[in-house]
Amino acid sequence: MKLMFASDIHGSLPATERVLSLFNQSGAQWLVILGDLLNHGPRNPLPDGYAPAQVADRLNAFASRIIAVRGNCDSEVDQMLLHFPITAPWQQILLERCRLFITHGHLFGPDNLPALSAGDVLVYGHTHIPLAEKRGDIFHFNPGSVSLPKGGIPPSYGLLEENHLCVMTLNDGQVIAQSEINP
């Protein structure tokens, strides 16, 4: 199974269109969105091409192939625009040899781990900083932000194929973080 991960869209139409274009090209079965889909939030600047209603329309075209969790900037009003569920604070995806615990990162995250087994993967956004590494017995995977990256890192997204986690830049596909899980 191949999965694509995007986080922290924050209502950016150009970022959404780029993500969906890459998703179409990727061969991934699912697009996993790690929260903060439509709103920019009071601590963030307006992202380029801020158009939440149009972002919802674009994402709705892929509703049957999206798995999403709620971010700290998402609300029930956002859910009214979207044709796929976004109100769960976390989801789990079971792979053959491990579990992916999918969350935004503001409730569960590196400093507040859920109950995980050795070899499981904590997948989160929220920080807008990409990461793919093993910490202790748990893998940490953050695809960064597609619209409002931080730390001088360009917009990015993630892929999981086979046992390979990879974070790539949104505009040119350069690998900026990667890790093998359960080799």
UniProtKB/TrEMBL annotation:
Matching SUPFAM superfamilies: Metallo-dependent phosphatases
**Keyword annotations from UniProtKB, A to Z:** Hydrolase, Metal-binding
UniProt GO molecular function: hydrolase activity; metal ion binding
> Pfam families annotated for this entry?
Metallophos_2
Instruction: State the InterPro entries in the record.
Output: Calcineurin-like_PHP_lpxH (IPR024654), Metallo-depent_PP-like (IPR029052), MPP_YfcE (IPR041802), PdiEstase_YfcE_CS (IPR020935), Phosphodiesterase_MJ0936/Vps29 (IPR000979)
Where the record annotates domain Calcineurin-like phosphoesterase, the positions are 1-161
Q: Which PROSITE patterns match?
A: UPF0025 (PS01269)
Q: Does the keyword Hydrolase apply?
A: yes
- According to its UniProt record, which cofactors does this protein need? a divalent metal cation
Name the domain of life.
Bacteria
EC numbers listed for it are 3.1.4.-
Q: State the family named in the UniProt similarity comment for this chain.
A: Belongs to the metallophosphoesterase superfamily. YfcE family.
Protein name (database record): Phosphoesterase
Which species does the entry assign this protein to?
Silvania confinis
